[in-house]
Structures are given as C-alpha cells and as structure tokens.
Amino acid sequence: MKILLIEDDKEVSNYIIKAMKESGHVIDHADNGKDGLFLATTENYNMLIVDRMLPGLDGITIIKTLRGSGNLTPVLILSALGEVDDRVTGLRAGGDDYLVKPFAFTELLARSEILGRRQAQNENSPLTTMMAHDLTVDLLSRRVTRQGKEITLQTREFSLLEYMLRNKGTIVTRTMLLENVWDYHFDPQTNVIDVHISRLRSKIDKDFDVPIIRTVRGAGYIIKGD
Amino acid sequence: MPDISSRAIRRRYTKSSSFYIALLFAVLGGLAIVSFSFFIKHYSSEAILYRGQELFDREVKYLNNLGRIPESDPQRLYYILPDGKTLPNDLPEPSKKLENGTLLFDLFATDQQYVGQIRILDNNKTVLIGVNTTDVSHDFYVVKFVALVSIASITCIILVAFGISIFVVNGTNKIADIAQNIMKTGDLSARIEVTSRWDDLSNVATVLNALLDRIQTLVEGVTHMSDNIAHDLRTPLTRMRNQIEDLDSDQIDEGVYHKLIEEADRILDTFNALLRVSRIEKVQQKSRFKAIDFEHIVHDLIDYIEPVIEEQQIELSVQLTSAPFYGDRDLFFQAISNILDNAIKFTPRRGKINIIVRNEDNEIIIAIENTGDHIEKDDLPKIFRRFYRTDKSRSTIGTGLGLSLAAAVVRLHDGKLWAQNTAQGVKFIISL
Q: With pLDDT > 90 as the criterion, what percentage of chain B qualifies?
C-alpha cells in the first residue's frame, strides 16, 4: 500500500514511517501543509494520513481542497485535539476516519489498512458471499456454514463476523468493533467485546480444528486470509 | 437525593431568630398598646368627672353656706329649676347623660363645654350646677390623641419588625439555597444574587461570592493540574507502549509482554477517562446534540452488555418506553453503560438487575436497580467523585471514573443523577 503522511511532529512521523515500512508499506512524508497538498494532488496514493494542525495549511483545508477537486483517496485524520466534536468536523470535511493522538500504532495500522482496502473494494462489485478457511457466509440469505454444517448466529454475532470478514487479513481493534458494529463512539469500561467474541467463537470455532478468529493480544482480533 | 436534608440548612421562617425577635417586639408593643387603651378608656374626661363627684359636693356645700344662688359666670353656671327637672330654655339639650345624673353641655355660642348636675340644696331648692370643663377636656383630647398616635406607631413598629424578619430570613435562605445547591451539584459557578448595596445581607452575599470565586479558582487549579499531568504523561506513556509492542518476542517473555501492554493500557485508560470527564465538564459541547430516544439507546446497551449479564447469571428485567430527548447519543450510551457496568460489578451471581426507562409528566427517568449490598449512607453522594472508592469497591478493577463521567454527562444535559439504597439493593436514577 502506498501511503502519504502529512505530519509536522518529527518524533511521531519517524515512528509512523519506520513502523509502516516494517509492515511492508510504502510511505511518503511531508512536514507541512503546502508540500502535503502538492504531493497528494500529484501522486497516486492508496490512502493519506493527515495531521490536523500543520504549518502552512491545516489538515481540514487540505482534505476540503482534495475533495473539492474530486480526489476521493481515503483520509485518516490524526489529531491531538481529540474530542468527539473535533471528530465530527474532521469527518464532515471529508475525512474517512479519525484517530486521536497519542495512539497505539496497532490501532493506526489496522485503521489504515482497512481504509486502503475500502478503496479497492469500492471498485469491485458488491460482495454476496465471504469465506475464511472452510467457513462461508452468504450475505443475502444471512446463512453461515462451516464444513457444510449450518451455524445459527444471532443478529449481533452475524454483524461481528461480517465486519471481521470484510476486513479479513487485518487486525480489528475493540474500538473499531464498537464503532462499526454497535455504531457508538465510547470507551468501554469493561471488555464486553471479548465476551461477544468468545460467544461467536463458541459457535464457529468450538467444534473445529482450525480457529477462524484469532486474538492479537494487546491489539484486537484478526481473521487470517487464506 | 444526596444526604443534605433541606431542613438543616434552609431556615423555616417560624424557626428563625429574626422571627422570634419580631415576636418579642409584638409582645412588648402589644403590652404598650393594651396599657394605652386602658388609659384612654379609664382616664377619659368623663371618667375624671365621674370620679370628680366631690366637685359638685363642694359646690353644694358652698351654695348652702352662701344661702343664695350667685350669678352665673363663664366658669360656673347656676340655674334654679322650679319643678326640679325642666331644664332652662336658654340651655341646649345635654349632649350626654352619665349614669350618676351628670350632664354634658356644649355651649356653641361661647364654644365652651360644661358638666352639670342637678342637686337639691338645704333650702329644698333644686339647682342645676354647671362647671366649665373646656380646658380640662381639651387637655384630655390632647392626651388621647398622643396615646392613639403611640398605638399607631407601635403597631407600625411591630409590622416593620415582622417585615425585617421576613426580609432577613428570605435573604439568609437565598444564601443557604445557593450553598446547598453547590454542595449537591458541585457546581461552583453559582453565585448569590446581590440586589442592593445598603443592607448587611447583601454585604455578606458579596463577601461569600468573592469566597466562591476564590474556591472555584483553587478547585479549577487542582483539576487543571491533574488534567495537565494526565495530558502530559499520555504521550510518553503511549510512546512507551509502542516501544513495548516493538520488542521482539525472543527478547522478552510472552507473558511479561502482555502484562506490560495491559498495564500501560490501564494507565492510559485512566488518563483518557480523566481528560474526558474534564472535557465534558469544561467545554459544554452541545454541537452533537440531536433528537435521540432512550428506549433505543438502552435497548442497544442491553444488546451490547447482555452476554456479561448472562455470564454472571444475573436475572435482567427491563421496562422500556419511548423517551425522546435532545442530547448526545454517544455520551448517554457511555454514561448509562458506566452505571450498568457498576451495577453488574456489585451484583452477586444469580442476582437481579432491573432497568426502567419511564417518560411521564415531562420527566424522563432512567433507573437501574440491582440486588446486592447497600452503599453506606455517607458514601451515596460521594461515589460520583473522581477516583472515589468505597471501602468495598477498593479491590475491584476500574478507573474509579466511570460514575463521575456519568454524572458529568447527565449534568451537561441539565439532569440529575443520584443513587439510593432500596429494599433489595441500590438504585441509580437519572432524571431529565
């Protein structure tokens, strides 16, 4: 994946660049708004990571300018401001996701990969069936089968599985599950998500040799690609 | 409600010292009025003359000694009554007849006033003796007037005393109300309204307001400092967490690795929660307010948290009604979820939790009641404080900020959140 990072904080930039490269991505960096906008309009990227507060041009203006000129490259906004209000302004301006500084790198990586992939998916025809190992999910009839055996899932369990399958091969964090499956932005006090996952697992993994959902400790969950 | 009973702080008017002082005034003034009235009644000119029977006795003695009836003069009137009862024609009808036969005459021609008595002399002549009382009765009118004025002014004093006492009690109650409200809600921005400059209470109010300003600054300073600490430590902590993540698995034991990550996450969670509470309290952000319905929010929340309730084998009963409101959906989800988390934490296995959303008379009530141990009465209002832990909860996990965040969210929406002990356990109530 080719990523453009527009960020003026040296320490944060170096860290992201290093970690992204280690994860096998190509990353360009601009340390001010003007250079960033120039790169974003002249080069082709899978996604942009844009800081809100930048010298020259601020992040929101960059996004607005890009969207205004028809550039639909997914943008993840980084911000030190970090409250729901800021999130809304950022997303309204045309950002696709929002991450508050300081953040755990796994969270940034997971979100970036999903954003980059979304773009690829949009270009394909809509999915009707999804598979992982020997598990098949039919999105139209909402049927789940594994090794030919039908598995009955509750609505919420189905949504969880669907979301993870859509992002197969990338880590999904607990916050991402909350935001996308439950559609609430909040800090869970207890790890209720884990209980939901373990319920789902007891249905799709318990009687089989190969687990579909794997835990990435300290980060979240992943359904590995085939 | 929190434990501060309104009786303790708000003085009922009839219990106030100013009322007692006014009452004392009324009693003393009443005594004065009664004695003045007694004076007026018993020392009126008629009464004096009634008692002055000997005046006429002396006149009779004088006439008997004289042996004749002298000429009338302005001070004395003497009329012989041939038939013993018919009054002379040149005298007007007596304006008043007293019971002992004393008559009162007003001679309008000379503007003089007389009292008279019909007496029989030694020589069997019947005489009407009149004595001029113009000066005497004039003096008594003056005295009577003064007495009446005194009664009127004492009445005024009593009324004013009650007026002052009402004013003072209202003033002190206003101050007490504000103080109580501050204790109840913790909102230090409230001030006592100062309406005038001349009275002492307004002066006290001004001084108290200045004191509140100072307290507010100090409290804000403390909060601000803890926020700053949290804010400044968040970045290096995140960096540390990222560095732990970066460690190669052959460099470090897997178990230790996860423990470190978990520990870092826990500290970060606490800092984030702390910053969130202050953000909600300080920045009254209402831009995300929109039409919401608690029926849906609570329904979603139950859907989210239900596996935990099931795992704990807690019996959940839910009564939801549509409760439309204008507010922040995510914040309420967070707030109610924090309260429910707390309830689950303190409900024993196989206990019960009851959730109610009610919408009656323009008031929305969201109540979460669990079976379990009571909260100490003293602790009830304190559990919403930051990092406050009751003795029983000290060992449980959590940031110690869940309920303060819930309280901040409810306050942001001008609602009330409180906890109370019930027959079976503890009930948390949000009222909007």
A: 11
| Nearest beta carbon to residue B311 from set A88, A195, A217 | A195
Mean pLDDT of chain B: 82
Element (H, E) at A92: helix A84-92
* Span B118-151, pLDDT tens digits: 888 888 888 888 888 777 778 778 888 888 898 8
Question: How many Cα atoms are found within 13 Å in the side-chain-facing hemisphere of B34?
Answer: 6
Q: Please say whether the dihedral angle defined by the alpha carbons of residues B397, B403, B408 and B412, taken in this order, is positive or negative.
A: positive
As a whole number, mean pLDDT of residues A139-161 equals 86
For B15-28, how does the pLDDT look when each residue is reduced to its tens digit (9 = 90+)?
888 888 888 988 99
| CA distance, residue A104 to nearest chain B CA (Å) | 6
* Complex ipTM over 0.85: no
List of chain B residues whose C-beta atoms are within 8 Å of the C-beta of residue A102: 234-235, 237-239
The verdict on a CB contact (< 8 Å) between B337 and A188 is yes
